[in-house]
């Protein structure tokens, strides 16, 4: 009798897991990070005319989904800076912490990071901190514009069956700690 109940419970749990794959598709932090690493091409020149011009390249992006704040994604990364100013040329590295709202664009089958903002930053060498604080609003706007246009993750029809289904049947996204869930039903 116990073996029968155990077998029945095992079959039911297997069916539930199988049915779950038919109702949603899950994207992990690792998959988002791989996509960001592969597709991130943020490179921008910003500055204050006549005072300072900075060429910024964003590298080493890593995401944390829904862990610090519900429905938000936190990104960390490095910004390599080449600055030309009245005082000469300087190089610096800025450690960035960013926050954004993941949004699904059904037409493009992609997840975009909207409302991107720099939450914190630290510059090396430290003597550059004051200059970078002045340029931070420009960097913030440049990042927001970039991530509004460039998706963090694109669903592929030629990927897994689940990914192809998600591209066709997606009803939006749900942000959960460590993952983004794309439900196929309302």
TrEMBL record:
Asked if the record carries the keyword Lipoprotein, the reply is yes
Q: What PROSITE patterns does its record include?
A: PROKAR_LIPOPROTEIN
Keywords of the record: Lipoprotein
Report whether Lipoprotein shows up as a keyword of the record.
yes
| Protein name per Swiss-Prot or TrEMBL | Lipoprotein
């Amino acid at each position: 009798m116990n073996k029968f109940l155990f077998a029945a419970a095992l079959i039911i749990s297997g069916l539930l897991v199988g049915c779950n794959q038919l109702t949603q598709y899950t994207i992990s932090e690792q998959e988002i990070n791989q996509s960001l690493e592969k597709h991130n091409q943020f490179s921008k020149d910003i500055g204050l005319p006549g005072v300072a011009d900075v060429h910024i390249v964003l590298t080493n992006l890593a995401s944390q989904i829904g862990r610090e704040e519900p429905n938000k994604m936190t990104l960390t990364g490095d910004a390599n800076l080449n600055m030309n100013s009245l005082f000469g040329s300087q190089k610096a590295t800025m450690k960035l912490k960013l926050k954004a709202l993941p949004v699904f664009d059904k037409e493009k089958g992609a997840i975009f990071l909207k409302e991107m903002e720099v939450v914190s930053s630290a510059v090396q060498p430290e003597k550059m901190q004051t200059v970078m604080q002045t340029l931070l609003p420009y960097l913030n706007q440049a990042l927001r514009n970039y991530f509004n246009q460039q998706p963090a993750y694109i669903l592929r029809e030629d990927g897994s069956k689940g990914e192809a289904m998600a591209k066709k049947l997606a009803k939006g996204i749900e942000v959960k700690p460590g993952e983004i869930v794309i439900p196929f039903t309302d």
